[in-house]
Specification:
Elements: E1 3-7, H1 9-13, H2 20-28, H3 33-43, H4 57-72, H5 78-88, H6 96-127, H7 129-132, E2 147-152, H8 158-165, E3 170-171, E4 176-183, E5 186-197, E6 214-219, E7 227-229, E8 234-238, H9 245-257, E9 261-262, E10 265-266, E11 272-276, E12 282-287, H10 307-316, E13 321-325, H11 332-344, E14 349-353, E15 373-376, H12 380-389, H13 394-401, H14 403-422
Helix pairs in contact: 3-4, 4-5, 4-6, 5-6, 6-14, 8-9, 10-11
Length: 424
């Protein structure tokens, strides 16, 4: 049987990563009327595009007004807010300075969201991963005897950590190598990354496992550690040939430190990051994390930059069983492809694993017959054990219940760290 996995935020919940609601709460908690007024005044003096292409302080103020309104209404999904700001830049009749301003603020918020997730990644790895790794030790129960395709909607590295520590071979599909110094003041501290040319990236890429046991991992919405280089023509990732998750975590921290310094000050960056190339020169890479309302286009036709969705389509036609873990079914580009695959391939079945979902999502209801769709109301770790043993592990269940207090500790620590970073 050919198995595949689709992982949502619920997969990483018991390992410490925030839900969308929690991330939104932390993000909005950084802002109030006083500091946003200071930010509008300060950011309005920036020249992010050039001195000849000024931005609008009024438009910047409108972006922050939207944020404060969203906070007052107790909005629960930061992506809705980012989508609204994206929409502002596309309104008919907007001047170029206004469009540029909204685009600039989207980049500022993007950088903060990325920083929040990066802080959570470090804190949760330190606090919860050691306590919960044993409960995820049956991960191999979800895999095929041959290659297993895993599609993750998460930006974190916990699937990679588990795979390395459990000695499960995992690949991003990369076949090339590229090196960067951490910065122009740390030229001898080298980061080695794997890479794949976007034009050659597909289900047949020789970097993916085929006919042998191993995981082909595709981060559909990008990753905290994935970078795009040379006008986004190269997809770059940390090497997965580490001896332990700790080695990969240390490499992630080095990737976060990549930069370029002028007069001992790091050049500020947003989604586009100023880094140092092998010659010690200023260069640019792009963060791959997709967020907001424009992750992918709304049509089925493949476009440049949507190679990962094409792989998802191609793999779905090969699978017998797709296990969906902890996904809230909020991404239309994913839902469309699931519905399309279920309509076209009669052999495809879906297992939905989610402790909070007691019914099939509406767009899949038409396929809820002859056991094509089954549900398991439990968490990721519970299912890894139960799917083979058909028995619940009470020790595991009690252990996972203790996560609540540790998650509160991680959240508090992350909030304190972020306030120190941004001084808002």
């Amino acid at each position: 049987m050919k198995k595949g996995l689709l992982l949502g935020a619920g997969f990483s919940y018991d390992l410490g990563m925030p839900t969308a609601y929690e991330l939104t709460e932390v993000f909005l908690g950084l802002f109030n009327k006083q500091n946003t007024a200071r930010l509008v005044a300060g950011l309005g003096n920036f020249q992010p595009y050039s001195a000849d292409r000024p931005i609008s302080k009024v438009a910047i103020g409108k972006s922050f007004d939207l944020l404060l309104e969203y906070k007052e209404k107790k909005g629960g999904n930061y992506e809705d807010l980012l989508s609204e700001i994206q929409s502002l830049s596309e309104e008919p009749g907007k001047s170029q300075p206004e469009k540029d301003s909204h685009h600039f603020i989207f980049g500022v918020f993007y950088e903060i969201i990325h920083a929040i997730l990066s802080v959570y990644q470090a804190k949760s790895y330190e606090v919860l991963y050691p306590k919960n790794k044993e409960w995820f030790s049956k991960l191999s129960n979800l895999l095929s005897d041959s290659e297993t395709w895993v599609f993750s909607l998460n930006h974190d590295l916990f699937f990679e950590f588990l795979s390395i520590d459990l000695e499960i071979r995992v690949s991003y599909g990369d076949i090339g190598r590229i090196e960067f110094p951490v910065s122009n003041i740390e030229m001898n501290n080298i980061i080695s990354l794997s890479c794949a040319a976007r034009k050659d990236y597909g289900v047949q890429s020789p970097g993916f496992f085929s006919g042998e046991h191993g995981v082909n991992l595709v981060k559909l919405h990008g990753s905290l550690s994935e970078l795009q280089y040379q006008d986004e023509s190269l997809i770059c990732n940390p090497l997965l040939t580490k001896k332990s998750s700790l080695e990969l975590m240390e490499e992630f921290k080095k990737i976060e430190r990549m930069g370029y310094y002028v007069q001992n000050k790091r050049v500020p960056s947003g989604r586009d990051r100023a880094v140092t190339n092998s010659k010690g020169e200023l260069d640019l890479v792009c963060r791959s994390m997709l967020t907001g309302g424009r992750k992918y286009s709304s049509t089925a036709k493949q476009k440049d930059g949507e190679e990962k969705l094409k792989i998802f389509d191609d793999v779905l036609r090969q699978l017998d069983q797709l296990t969906i873990i902890g996904y809230g079914f909020g991404d239309r580009h994913v839902n469309f492809r699931l519905s399309n695959a279920m309509a076209r391939y009669d052999n495809l079945t879906i297992r939905i694993v989610d402790p909070a979902r007691n019914k099939v999502p509406e767009f899949l209801e038409q396929f809820d017959y002859d056991s094509r769709i089954r549900r398991a109301m439990c968490g990721a770790a519970h299912w890894m054990d139960y799917c083979k043993s058909n028995a619940w592990d009470t020790k595991q269940m009690e252990g996972l219940k203790e996560n609540t207090k540790y998650r509160a500790e991680i959240k508090k620590s992350a909030q304190e760290t972020l306030k120190g970073i941004y001084r808002l």
